[in-house]
Amino acid sequence: MKLEDLxxxxxxxxxxxxxxxxxxxxxxxxxxxxCERVLELAKKxxxxxxxxxxxxxSSNSKLLALILPDLLxxxxxxxxxxxxxxxxxxxxxxxxxCSDDETEMEEKLVRTLTGRKVEAIIxxxxxxxxxxxxxxxxxxxPVILLDRFQSGTKLxxxxxxxxxxxxxxxxxxxxxxxxxxAYFGGNQALDNCxxxxxxxxxxxxxxxxxxxxxxxxxxDYSVEAGYSMMKDYxxxxxxxxxxxxxxxxxxxxxxxxxxxxxxxxxxxQIDWATFGDSYILDLLPFTIHSARQQYEEMAKQAMExxxxxxxxxxxxxxxxxxxxxxxxRI
Amino acid sequence: MKLEDLxxxxxxxxxxxxxxxxxxxxxxxxxxxxCERVLELAKKxxxxxxxxxxxxxSSNSKLLALILPDLLxxxxxxxxxxxxxxxxxxxxxxxxxCSDDETEMEEKLVRTLTGRKVEAIIxxxxxxxxxxxxxxxxxxxPVILLDRFQSGTKLxxxxxxxxxxxxxxxxxxxxxxxxxxAYFGGNQALDNCxxxxxxxxxxxxxxxxxxxxxxxxxxDYSVEAGYSMMKDYxxxxxxxxxxxxxxxxxxxxxxxxxxxxxxxxxxxQIDWATFGDSYILDLLPFTIHSARQQYEEMAKQAMExxxxxxxxxxxxxxxxxxxxxxxxRI
DNA sequence: CATATTAGCTGAACCGATTTAGCTTATGAA
DNA sequence: TTCATAAGCTAAATCGGTTCAGCTAATATG
Lengths: 330, 330
Description:
Organism (chains A, B): Endozoicomonas numazuensis
Protein name (chains A, B): HTH lacI-type domain-containing protein
Helix content of chain A: 40-55%
Keywords (chains A, B): DNA-binding, Repressor, Transcription, Transcription regulation
CATH architecture of the largest domain in chain A: 3-Layer(aba) Sandwich
GO molecular function (chains A, B): DNA-binding transcription factor activity; transcription cis-regulatory region binding
Largest sheet of chain A: 6 strands, parallel
Largest interface: A-B, 55 and 55 residues
Order of helices and strands of chain A: HHHHEHEHEHEEHEHEHEHEEHEE
Pfam family, one (chains A, B): LacI
Distance between the termini of chain A: 62 Å
Number of domains of chain A: 3
Number of helices of chain A: 12
CATH superfamily of the largest domain in chain A: Response regulator
Structural class of chain A: alpha/beta
CATH class of the largest domain in chain A: Alpha Beta
Oligomer: homodimer
CATH topology of the largest domain in chain A: Rossmann fold
Number of strands of chain A: 12
Shape of chain A: elongated
């Protein structure tokens, strides 16, 4: 059923019907009677406006786009959930697309989404060259980068404070009794890896426990790296460290794989701190503290940035959120 | 940049430009030269067609919709990931919306999505009355229900075989050495809960170990229920069962919360079987078998059902997938 | 009674593409 | 030379709404 059919049934013009259905009746002085008649018929026939036609004419789409490297990552799923909810409450739908961490795919997605006239693109981006995003902004589509970005970008960004979080996380880990400390981190060429290590080091120096460092190991943020770093440590020391800092959730998984395979049980007195979080850490039978991104807050800020952009209130928002430190000492 | 501008620049008509950009040049005998000129200019100016306009005219949208109760659920996130990828490879984008398990929200979503002219709705549905989905189908939008549905529906469905999976999962659990068996399940008024228990019972009877059942407890599939059922068991027996069957992942979580709080360590010789799966189970320091839905296969079948519907090849597809049983004996 | 104002509604343009019948011009055949 | 055919392209209708200037009839005002 099209607007025209509905209008005919109600004995009014397309214009009148449209005006009523969009709630502009007052402004156009449409009489109560006519309104009721139209609305009732619309309900009766389950009339729903064609969003393509409406959007084309009034140049909106009520669509937002979210680009993620991978929807399966627990954190990104959480982010999606919150963004979707906020979008929905605000009358938008969310197109979620994955780049699979591939630059070309991401660029293709941005172009396609631009053509779809999404009203904003929110992206956990993998690219190093933002020109495709600048293109989008030039065409009037606001862009917000979450979680990561190349320094110097002119786009809106929202990230979490790695340095501060690493420091606090380390401090939490140190509140237990002293002992050998191991640090397993990622590629030091990357900003976030470096920041995490800096935070860790700072906390150690300030606490005066720097001499307890047994190992500092930088590899990369893969499960395999975690496994191999723990293997090395074990070969060297014939035991686990009393305190362990893993720079990512994946590293933690690697370490767990190793201990599951080679250890009878995890020592309960271990103080383990890791970046990345999951409710599952609450269930592990030993102490593991974590630093989690505040994805809900991130989603909220993203929507606020959008509001600001829609109203052209602010030129650029660069937001740094804190991470939540979760202390799980048993 | 609109098609018209591009056409003007290239010195051709809108029609010609459109024909070329859509790859119909051959059919319309547009010369090589003209094609090249148009395509080059399009690339140079990063021309992207307005999908609303194109879709309106040619009545397509290249949009698929996915409705989920909750995006955070690990299984649904996995399903989304696979569906998104398949959709993307087939030239579609995916609108993901959550119903938050609320009937009204789900119905509202279906209506909105209908108006958006999505080309299909794939739904993990919470409603008991499918009329809003039937409405959608009447308007030419195919619907596929995943994971759950009320019996008697005329919609396409894809689910997993709970009965068979429970049976196999129980058999896996029984391969260890005999001992006290506990079953923690959900509300027996629900089909899936009943089916799981039936499968469990059948396996026990066939194996002749039915007399080892220490407890059968039906409550509901909540974390709290898991906690409380294990608490009861522990109070009664002062120990854990040798074999434990939990009917859902959430129940498993509840049990883990209890053991983490009240037990020194999880006995390694426990044979635990649970519905629901996560990579995290690979990391737990004891044996926990699981039955996981084949979400990737589910996504694949869903897309195939869509193909069939688009071609009007089949009237109705009702698919039952097996669950994958993962044996994790340490 | 004439004119101004208001209430209530509508016609027609428009959004930006796709689609198809058909118009030129060039080429070939008779 | 003349007509048929083919090559290459375009004009105009169309999709289904929104938007706004403006029309008509009714009421108010002087």
